[in-house]
Write a structure and sequence with these properties.
By secondary structure, this protein is mainly alpha-helical. It contains nine helices and four strands; from the N terminus they run ααβααβααβααβα.
Length: 170
């Protein structure tokens, strides 16, 4: 099965059921906010807890604070975010980028702090050697450029923008 079929809103119901089951970590037949965040993250969209809770409230038509399979299926069939993922080549690159981001996000908080960035920089740019003062300045300068909102953290969307700017996820 191709990546395009997986995100196709008209995918066979068995495919949608398996996707639902994959993210229903506690097998309670419901998707909670944390599980929804993981699904979005795996598809290349980082959500904060607030975004996840907000989306869940939108999708939760019966008001039980969870997404049932029927609610998930309705969302899956109509959600337009997946149109961005119809290109199998791009989908593969996005998945690789998500894996790289998750590896860099050592404390798994959904962002890369300056310490995690320096680990990345040392491993990939300085061949694992210690920084010279000039390399550390350059690393910090690039970090600040990537951190577009200036909050001191590189979020998934900022990391993705960096990769996209350099043609790595197109």
């Amino acid at each position: 099965m191709s990546a395009r079929q997986l995100v196709d809103p008209n995918a066979p119901i068995i495919i949608v059921k398996s996707i639902f089951a994959k993210y229903d970590k506690n097998a309670d037949q419901k998707i909670n906010p944390a599980e929804l965040m993981e699904l979005a993250y795996d598809l290349g969209y980082y959500m904060t807890k607030e975004h996840s809770t907000s989306l869940l409230k939108t999708l939760d038509t019966d008001g039980d604070d969870h997404i049932s399979f029927d609610e998930f299926l309705n969302w899956w069939k109509q959600h337009d975010k997946f149109k961005l993922m119809e290109n199998p080549s791009k989908l593969k690159k996005i998945h690789e980028a998500v894996k790289a981001f998750r590896k860099l996000d050592v404390n798994n908080d959904g962002s890369i702090d300056v310490h995690e960035w320096h680990i990345f920089w040392a491993a990939f740019v300085s061949d694992g050697k210690s920084f010279t003062p000039e390399e550390e300045k350059k690393s910090l300068a690039i970090y600040k450029l990537v951190d577009k909102d200036g909050d001191g953290l590189v979020q998934w969307n900022e990391f993705h923008d960096l990769l996209e700017k350099h043609g790595l996820v197109q």
